[in-house]
């Protein structure tokens, strides 16, 4: 086979590999949603449930002007760098046994670090009732319904935020059969039972509030919505002590955010501040705020680079590596180049940064435990249950790069050799090559 044929064959192989990688990247495209759950476990961010809607219309749960609850279940591998413009979601819907639902809450639980639990929620379009709790094992890619030791317990809430601490999920407020509540349920995910926490000095009944654990003991609650009075003021910070089962209230000052609900809250990497984003008001003068947990003073953080995103609400946010990772929600339009995932680099407290590029390097300082590194057996299971496409894309891209480099070397050497032969003085009896 001639050198020209070899070079042409190499180029064709490169084109085929590039095309296959492109096809893999568009195999699964999730629908836009809100009132979903987002669980970060085993270096993956799992998305489940929620309402889908027409992004060109303003949709509310109250007028029921939605397309429907969503059955999709999918994740994204957060252990590798990526760009939010080209997300490679991995479909796990075939493993989903949960009826369509919205407004549930989820967190890592049980006695190991490879299971996350889904509590509560409600179904609007299906006559099928959901169980109180579901468990998803990331090692076996399987859902199950845990057996509760107090089998008669059946209080199901929705529109709340579950906070996990020492194997217990703290479930404050939310809706019970459509009625606002302010009780504290405590779900022991190790012993699989429910208890009730103190209600003395507890906040008034509310839903879609913000909540976050800090100092490895306290849970801060603020904002939210009550049907009769609208959104709560953000100056009142209600603190639940998980060790002493007691409530205290703090008055915050500074640049206090306007009253809101449906926003997200995460703990900063240094463990000394809470970061909130979004909220469902018709107009938000600012979407991003920081609450100093030592002084309880609010401020608007300085941000740099990247396009400042439009505020959204009823979304989810997780801290992964150096980033606040915000997923889906209402209030943004994908036709205007707004992505389903927003990334805020929070590694520098003096200046946060909106970006489209995720780097999984761990933060230098963090008060939160880092997720476990996947074992070789879990990697095999992931490959056999949906990661094949993603791994294939990575391997394909790597092989394409190697092939391209090799092909470039061949082309360069062939061209150099050809040039040399043209310039060479022919010896007697040798025919000069003319092209």
UniProtKB/TrEMBL annotation:
Keywords: Kelch repeat, Membrane, Repeat, Signal, Transmembrane, Transmembrane helix. The chain crosses the membrane at residues 387-412. The keyword Signal applies. InterPro entries: Kelch-typ_b-propeller. Residues 1-25 form the signal peptide. Pfam families: Kelch_KLHDC2_KLHL20_DRC7. SUPFAM superfamilies: Kelch motif. This is 8280_t:CDS:1. It comes from Funneliformis caledonium. The lineage of its organism: Eukaryota, Fungi, Fungi incertae sedis, Mucoromycota, Glomeromycotina.
């Amino acid at each position: 086979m001639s050198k020209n044929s070899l070079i042409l064959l190499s180029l064709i192989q490169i084109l085929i590999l590039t095309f296959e990688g492109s096809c893999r990247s568009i195999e699964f495209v999730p629908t836009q949603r809100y009132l979903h759950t987002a669980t970060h476990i085993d270096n993956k961010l799992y998305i489940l449930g929620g309402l889908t809607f027409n992004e060109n219309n303003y949709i509310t749960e109250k007028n029921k002007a939605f397309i429907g609850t969503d059955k999709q279940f999918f994740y994204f591998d957060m252990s590798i760098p990526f760009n939010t413009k080209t997300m490679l979601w991995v479909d796990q819907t075939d493993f989903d046994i949960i009826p369509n639902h919205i407004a549930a809450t989820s967190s890592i639980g049980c006695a190991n670090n490879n299971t996350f639990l889904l509590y509560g929620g409600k179904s609007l379009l299906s006559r099928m009732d959901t169980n109180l709790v579901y468990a998803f094992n990331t090692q076996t890619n399987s859902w199950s319904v845990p057996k509760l030791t107090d089998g008669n317990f059946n209080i199901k809430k929705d529109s709340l935020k579950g906070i996990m601490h020492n194997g217990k999920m703290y479930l404050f407020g939310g809706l019970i059969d459509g009625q606002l509540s302010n009780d504290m349920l405590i779900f022991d995910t190790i012993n699989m039972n429910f208890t009730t926490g103190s209600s003395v000095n507890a906040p008034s009944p509310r839903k879609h509030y913000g909540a976050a654990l800090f100092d490895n003991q306290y849970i801060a609650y603020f904002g939210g919505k009550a049907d009769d009075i609208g959104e709560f003021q953000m100056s009142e910070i209600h603190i639940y002590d998980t060790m002493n089962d007691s409530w205290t209230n703090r008055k915050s000052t500074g640049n206090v955010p306007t009253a809101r609900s449906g926003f997200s809250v995460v703990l900063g990497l240094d463990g000394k501040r809470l970061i909130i984003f979004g909220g469902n008001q018709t107009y938000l003068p600012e979407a991003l705020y920081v609450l100093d947990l030592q002084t309880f003073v609010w401020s608007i953080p300085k941000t740099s680079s990247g396009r400042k995103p439009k505020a959204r609400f009823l979304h989810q946010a997780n801290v992964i590596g150096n980033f606040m990772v915000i997923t889906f929600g209402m209030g943004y339009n994908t036709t205007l180049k707004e992505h389903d995932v927003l990334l805020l680099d929070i590694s520098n407290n003096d200046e946060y940064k909106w970006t489209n590029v995720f780097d999984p390097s761990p933060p230098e300082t963090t008060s939160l435990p880092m997720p476990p590194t996947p074992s070789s057996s879990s990697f095999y299971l992931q490959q056999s249950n949906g990661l094949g496409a993603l791994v294939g894309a990575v391997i394909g891209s790597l092989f394409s790069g190697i092939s391209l480099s090799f092909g470039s070397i061949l082309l360069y050497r062939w061209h150099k050799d050809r040039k040399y032969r043209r310039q060479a003085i022919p010896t007697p009896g040798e025919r000069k090559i003319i092209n």
